């Protein structure tokens, strides 16, 4: 019997094989360059760092880097923001910020899930924006703009989370259907997991091998794209950072920053929560979906065995007073965030003693001034060096 010739199939296999070899080669080179340039990339904010996994995982393995996650407050230019302040290792470490406008609890949970077991026993700092908790729902564009298919796949198929936690997270992720258009497999798997029945659980587990393959491909792509970014930025990156160790006089630094803040007026017309009055504010504050996502974030950190610190910006009390949203209504946020932190044994610093301190915040009423950043910097320094006196939920 003559052999059936399949030239098209043979050509397709050759192309596929070549693509896999290129991807593996790029990933291998990418890993080496990630390690080489990690410290130079540490203080920078860029899309691949935020949406990928490779650099974040590598950062958790470095004893002189403190991973620091947040939202637009980490993005907004400020002289004393942590990425600038610790760049020269004044006390022996630098921060590794991961942030983008609109990054909230559910987004951060996916990032931590993607880092996975690398987080066990490792310190991480999370900056909380009170405004996340002042409306019933976060604008979908915030989540959509931060969504990473790789990080979502890592959470679903690779993270060492309990099935119960994955199920609860899946239900929250399904509230953003636009992001699921990027992967039919991911969308279908999330729906099966969310239904909570033996049949649907069996379907989810049957899909997992396909999900693992998809995740592996996305990981290789992440390494490859990170390598491309490094090659592009290589002329501006320094592989060796010369530490400038110095004693820090926090009192004088904060005093000078407070004086400078008093000389500047920041204006931002975007509503932040209190503008509709006390009744609407309290309703949004008490019914915010973010409380659910924040609880899931804390559960995830616990299951990963991480050592987190929560830093919450204070509310801009003077601004809120203008709309009749007095301190008792603002205290609902402080009390609830403390209660959740305490329940999960996570240290928290709310800076609520600065609720009426007009020099602590700037611009958006939910961003840090230089004075506010110095308070954050001091907390980061104390946390890294095990001097922080905050207790869970304090």
Features:
394 residues, alpha/beta, two-stranded antiparallel sheet, 17 helices, 7 strands
Molecular structure report:
This protein has 394 residues and is α/β, with parallel strands linked by helices. Helix content is 55%, strand content 8%. It contains 17 helices and seven strands. The chain has helices at residues 7-41, 47-51, 54-60, 72-75, 82-85, 105-115, 140-146, 149-158, 163-173, 184-195, 198-233, 250-261, 278-287, 290-304, 317-321, 327-343, 370-384; strands at residues 65-70, 94-99, 123-128, 307-312, 348-349, 361-362, 367-368. It has a five-stranded parallel β-sheet, with helices on both faces. Strand 6 and strand 7 (367-368) form a beta hairpin. Helix 6 crosses helix 8 and helix 12 runs antiparallel to helix 17 (370-384). The radius of gyration is 23 Å and the shape is globular. The N and C termini lie far apart (81 Å).
In brief, what are we looking at here?
55% of the residues lie in helices and 8% in strands. The chain has helices at 7-41, 47-51, 54-60, 72-75, 82-85, 105-115, 140-146, 149-158, 163-173, 184-195, 198-233, 250-261, 278-287, 290-304, 317-321, 327-343, 370-384, and strands at residues 65-70, 94-99, 123-128, 307-312, 348-349, 361-362, 367-368.
